[in-house]
Amino acid sequence: MLYGFYFDPTYILIIIGMVICMAASAHVNSTFKKYSRYRSNSGLTGAQAAAKILESQGIYDVQIRHVSGDLTDNYNPSNKVLSLSDATYNSTSVAAIGVAAHECGHAMQHQKGYTPIAVRNALVPFANWGARLSWVLIIAGLIFFGQGTGQTIINIGIFAFSLAVIFQIVTLPVEFNASGRAIKVLESTGIFGSQELKYTRKVLGAAALTYVAAVASSILQLLRLIILFGGRKDD
């Protein structure tokens, strides 16, 4: 007991996950801010660079839109919309163009039928529902624990959460591949020179760490659920 409350040592797993995610987020923000001060020699904005990249790949059915916020850039394969944030759309910085190229990388994956992105997209509904229902199922299992079905319900809850973890893991190769495609196309189109490519690798590398951190945090949360609720005797 700790001041009248039960101290759960598995909280350390949550704390470690939070620290990892916060550190990764701070790193990507500081890196993006640093290389946002370097203007691209091409003079292209993020939106213009994205249009040029898509055209170079023969992709003419993707719409480029402006979306509010910073680093909220994304590509939606369902409606083929590439959204660029305030920090990217009209900026001529190396960082902005690098991020725009990364999102173009996802459009390129979609066009080429890149298998991991198809798998990730298929997992989206399962991951969303799994994350939402996991704790509901675990709590329901605890309520019915001792009646023969409690542990089964808990195990289903843990499995539901594991779907969200699998989604995070599948996301890693998708993001790394999109960044690799971005670097190659920035070089092949002549949008960036060697020094700008070096800066872009740093920006995209920092962004990739946020996905690694998310995976680590999710795995730690899953481990905590297994430690707390897995393998109980439901007599």
From TrEMBL:
* Protein's UniProt keywords contain Transmembrane: yes
Q: What is the lineage of its organism?
A: Bacteria, Bacillati, Bacillota, Clostridia, Eubacteriales
Q: Which UniProt keywords apply?
A: Membrane, Transmembrane, Transmembrane helix
InterPro entries on file: Zn_peptidase_2
Which organism encodes this protein? Eubacterium segne
Q: Specify the protein name.
A: Zinc metallopeptidase
Q: Which spans of this chain does the record mark as coiled coil? A: none
Transmembrane annotation, as ranges: 12-32, 129-147, 153-174, 203-229
